[in-house]
Amino acid sequence: MKNIIGIIISVLLISSFAKERSGIQGTIDPPEGAKRIWAVSGKDTVSIIPPPGSFIMDVKPGSWKLVVEAVLPYKNAEREGILVIEGQLTDIGLIKLSQ
Predict the structure, then answer these.
(1) Is the full-model pTM beyond 0.85?
(2) Which of 15, 46, 68, 90 shows the smallest number of beta carbons within 10 Å?
């Protein structure tokens, strides 16, 4: 019984922290086309090496510019004016890299 209560409390705590996450999520096509993804807002810069396909970046609330640094033969891509709200993930959808 104690184990079940402990598990329930753990799940509730994890759920409450997950709701607090602020960031940007999206999908890259082709999945292997992104070398690095940068998010820039004023003097703040965040970068990740994304797994193939989808990505999630934790960033502070505000307006962000996203730059996808592509691998050859693909070209870099940018998205501006991405609004991130406290406690929410902003889904920017599909970023299609051109050659």
Answers:
(1) no
(2) 15
Please report the pLDDT score of residue 11 as a whole number.
46
Buried b (16+ CB within 10 A) or exposed e, 24-42: bebebeeeebbeebbbbbe
Q: How far apart are CA 2 and CA 17, in angstroms?
A: 23
Domain boundaries, the chain: 22-96
Helix (H) or strand (E) holding 2: helix 2-19
End-to-end CA separation in angstroms for the chain:
58
Report, at the CATH architecture level, how domain 22-96 is classified. Answer: Sandwich (2.60)
Cα(86)–Cα(82) distance, integer angstroms: 13
